[in-house]
Amino acid sequence: MNATKPLRLGLIGAGRMGSFHGRTAALHVPGACLAAIADPTPGQAARLAQELEVAKVYSDPQQLLDDPDIDGVLIGAPSALHCELVVGAARAGKGIFCEKPMSWSMEEIDRAIAAAKAAGVILQCGFNRRFAKSFRAAHEAVAAGRIGTPQSLRSLTRDPAFGNPAGFRKWGIFLETLIHDFDTLNYLNPGARATEVHVMADALIAPRYKDRGLLDTAVVSIRYDNGAIAVAEASFQAVYGYDVRAEVFGSAGMLSMGSIAQSDLLSYGSDGIRADTQRMDTDLLRDAYIAELNHFAHCLRSGETPRATGEDARAALAIACTCIESVEQGKAIQL
Amino acid sequence: MNATKPLRLGLIGAGRMGSFHGRTAALHVPGACLAAIADPTPGQAARLAQELEVAKVYSDPQQLLDDPDIDGVLIGAPSALHCELVVGAARAGKGIFCEKPMSWSMEEIDRAIAAAKAAGVILQCGFNRRFAKSFRAAHEAVAAGRIGTPQSLRSLTRDPAFGNPAGFRKWGIFLETLIHDFDTLNYLNPGARATEVHVMADALIAPRYKDRGLLDTAVVSIRYDNGAIAVAEASFQAVYGYDVRAEVFGSAGMLSMGSIAQSDLLSYGSDGIRADTQRMDTDLLRDAYIAELNHFAHCLRSGETPRATGEDARAALAIACTCIESVEQGKAIQL
Amino acid sequence: MNATKPLRLGLIGAGRMGSFHGRTAALHVPGACLAAIADPTPGQAARLAQELEVAKVYSDPQQLLDDPDIDGVLIGAPSALHCELVVGAARAGKGIFCEKPMSWSMEEIDRAIAAAKAAGVILQCGFNRRFAKSFRAAHEAVAAGRIGTPQSLRSLTRDPAFGNPAGFRKWGIFLETLIHDFDTLNYLNPGARATEVHVMADALIAPRYKDRGLLDTAVVSIRYDNGAIAVAEASFQAVYGYDVRAEVFGSAGMLSMGSIAQSDLLSYGSDGIRADTQRMDTDLLRDAYIAELNHFAHCLRSGETPRATGEDARAALAIACTCIESVEQGKAIQL
Amino acid sequence: MNATKPLRLGLIGAGRMGSFHGRTAALHVPGACLAAIADPTPGQAARLAQELEVAKVYSDPQQLLDDPDIDGVLIGAPSALHCELVVGAARAGKGIFCEKPMSWSMEEIDRAIAAAKAAGVILQCGFNRRFAKSFRAAHEAVAAGRIGTPQSLRSLTRDPAFGNPAGFRKWGIFLETLIHDFDTLNYLNPGARATEVHVMADALIAPRYKDRGLLDTAVVSIRYDNGAIAVAEASFQAVYGYDVRAEVFGSAGMLSMGSIAQSDLLSYGSDGIRADTQRMDTDLLRDAYIAELNHFAHCLRSGETPRATGEDARAALAIACTCIESVEQGKAIQL
């Protein structure tokens, strides 16, 4: 690939997150362009293509994978299709960015990782927090030993609003939401491996869906092989906005990160001091989303291993799957 | 008791915390005076009595309890003696402030509570955070419904330094340290009752004491009967100071509290922005310690029920005892 | 004076601030008691004396000054009477705490300082910020050279509400309000002397009183003999509470101090993040008010020079008087 | 101009700021490309052109202005050339983004504004703070009346390091540095006009250049026609980084903005709590620099008036020129 020739990226899946990634790729990744969009939903790919002046539109993702013009693909399709698309993209020799979760099953993710490995293509997972400035700096500080040995960690995700409880997917809180926190904890405890998981979870926001299996609030305790004990928390509805924070405490110090304030503006009025909050993941983590696609482009060009790999996705998924077991068996489970 | 006659308080136990309470009572509780000090350690009571100009010194706490001049007692003796002293003080008809933990055993604490009840004396437990400004305001906001129904909570205590690991008491992390957090969680989830407890704990700071039963790092998950899921965390050694924080998240908002900064001074230098931290519980929570003894004096005069009762101590102890079971059985335990 | 005999303090002036100091002296100064109150307003001294169980009540301050039982006096009378009372107290051989401003005139304050000196009594001025934890730590850091040579400073005072504009005193913004900031700037620039003053001021809150001489908003620039340039700002009405902050910038760093948040409690709701603010000087600076009277008691006992002297009051007054000249002449004035 | 055809921007001046703008234009302005670079310094334009893969390189800015392919120019040349280049660009019919200050002289800037007007081209000045998120939100809050009528304001700029004092330009602190603050104050006090200016300034960082006219520290008081009194402060050397903050206080509230922390990461260690700071304007205000060039591109396409106009540059310059008079005459000057 020539440095002067723009990277040609193809987007698979033009829903909310797919479109967001498409816009990011088209507008905020210097040296890359969005060259094709594939989505089977009638009109969806075309609409985005028009907005972003993308020439090629496909209704079948395989067409995009077959397009020899495409250097790398961004997989933003529904989670259930991720692994199949990763395997297909790997076979087509494309570099792969796959939105999290890469898979809901360990077998499947192993197949995906193996396919990428066999094809020699890069495989990056959409763990955005690894690209947030403070989370990355914290990781590097921990890796450099600046807080000694990690002893306790915390990561939390609170979504701003639980749109349609009826449409929930069973186990989504672990596989779709906390997967971020599991990866964050792994990232902030570099080199360590989760060995035990215990879950307390419930349907507190939409209790009438509880008997159908909804869990919308969860606290997960995780023990690591370096002794560290971590907590991952999630809620599907925080009225104050999108809340993503973490903390890592070690033998020589502590790091905290994450802020939901919109900016450094403070308003002082008769009701006290106020700061506006971020309401959307794509606002709160905008810079991280941009950084992760730039990183993908960088890895595509350089062949460097991405900062969030298939193995990272697998490690987080392993925790998520163990959470399900913990809930089903009502006890702590060894990984 | 006449409003114009100062309350006469007697201190039992003149070690570190006992002396601190004695100084607070003598110097920072308007309308009260420290009238007697009892401590069996030779010289200990006398030294403090001289410092604070207290006339009466006893080597046997029973002498102090028998002193008809004393209106109320501050129990700052070693934890193991707390309950016996509470029972004795109740029989002597004295109002009682007892440092936490009130007891290490459920039977004993029931006996203490019953004794105070039978004697009609007030019984206050030294849960200092109930008297910290932000914790109290948070409790009141929750009680007033301002964050809706609590759904998830967190409370943590990190001691600044693990002086002498060899001198640890088994289960101390639950019975001496996390007892504060269990009470804080109860306080921030008013009216709710803990129903299930799970512990992950380890000896990470002083691992060589692990096989003798040391636990110096712990994460406790607690389920409440209103659905809320709480986490209590403790560490015996935080190099950055004494760290006490809490958070309560509900259906209509979230409250966070606790700061280890010494003051609102910020220093900007070539190494960035810095704030000094508090290194001692008695510095971090100084105002709370003063407030709790003033509250005790107020309750002594007015007969009002203290803000931290024997029943509160019992509820926290019940969680601590269940933690021990959880560690011993390696599983979650129902209360 | 015997360490075991409580210091006997007498309060002159039982209005808002006088009463506040009286309560502080009676309740929060270990080793001292409030022994007498004098106030010519019928009933005012008696009411406070009853509240605080003070035995002696005088309608004429001279009676209190003549009382041989009194070790030190707290002057909380109207500003116009301060100097006369200081002189009287000095002649009576009493140690003196005088609320700021000590005087509105340079001649008068010189007379007061000379009287105290001649009598060999201590004279402390009520510059509360010198006793606020962060301001004091900042002063010490500057004095220790930790920010190098001060180059620019800022101090501001914003009162919460301009009760009755009709009752304003001409030049009050300099003599009553900014006097605090002038002293703060001197305190944060230790050893330096103000050499030039320029004022911009106006009646913005109550403009209809402007032609009667009201100034309710002011910005004062001050040049010091060590080169530092300072700004003092004041407003008589901040809807968000009582606002007192300062900043000192030097060749090797910067210090900022002052926070109007009530506590470390943060509330997160659908309208963002919120913190409650302090609304009263006596709330915002409560600990500083307590510390300054304890310091006064300490100096009375030890003979130590107070941390806020008559000379400090004079230095701040000199700036305030120069401000008046600057407004009257519409230009910068050399001190 | 067709929406699908990228805007073609030309950069004049490839020094530090020019290159930064060139990179921003080339990499972070979707829908635009950097098509040409002109710089008379041998090799300077070529080096940047190679880095950014820009095809056209000119040694004479006029060649770039004559290039019919260029839609808009970014003027990053030395300040002394700004106005001449604005006039030339206007005559050539190019849209113009001119780095601040647009000029050092009122006559010249009037000529520049008139030229742009006559040519009907847009003219945007590089006042980056108007594009910083918090400053913009503050402006909008003030304009919407949310803090009532502005009564007092503050804006400050502290550069991180005074590289080579010998190379200073006389009056640079007003014309190059504080020009930002003058514009910020105008921006936060929308619709108001400065009427009076007073300066206190000195050479405190490099005092040996003082007699050659250096001023490296300044405090400027500004009175506005709506009564508001503002302070602008500058220093050429803050050891802790690049410091840009502002505050606007009004009859109904206060807004504060600006933070020098690098991110939301906090580090807790044995020396307290720490946050890293930004050291470069291009780091601290990176998002604002990107936003201002995107805004320029937007205005070029839409014909919309930029958020920072030639008139805004003129208003700030008028204050800066009055500052010089104030220093020269040693008094406050009416505008």
From TrEMBL, chains A, B, C, D:
UniProt-listed SUPFAM superfamilies: Glyceraldehyde-3-phosphate dehydrogenase-like, C-terminal domain, NAD(P)-binding Rossmann-fold domains
Single GO term (MF): oxidoreductase activity
InterPro entries with a match to the protein in the record: Gfo/Idh/MocA-like_OxRdtase_N, GFO_IDH_MocA-like_dom, NAD(P)-bd_dom_sf
Keyword Oxidoreductase: yes
Keyword annotations: Oxidoreductase
Family: Belongs to the Gfo/Idh/MocA family.
Source organism: Azotobacter vinelandii (strain DJ / ATCC BAA-1303)
Pfam families (alphabetical): GFO_IDH_MocA (PF01408), GFO_IDH_MocA_C3 (PF22725)
Domain Gfo/Idh/MocA-like oxidoreductase N-terminal: 8-127
Span of domain GFO/IDH/MocA-like oxidoreductase: 135-255
Protein name from the UniProt record: Myo-inositol 2-dehydrogenase
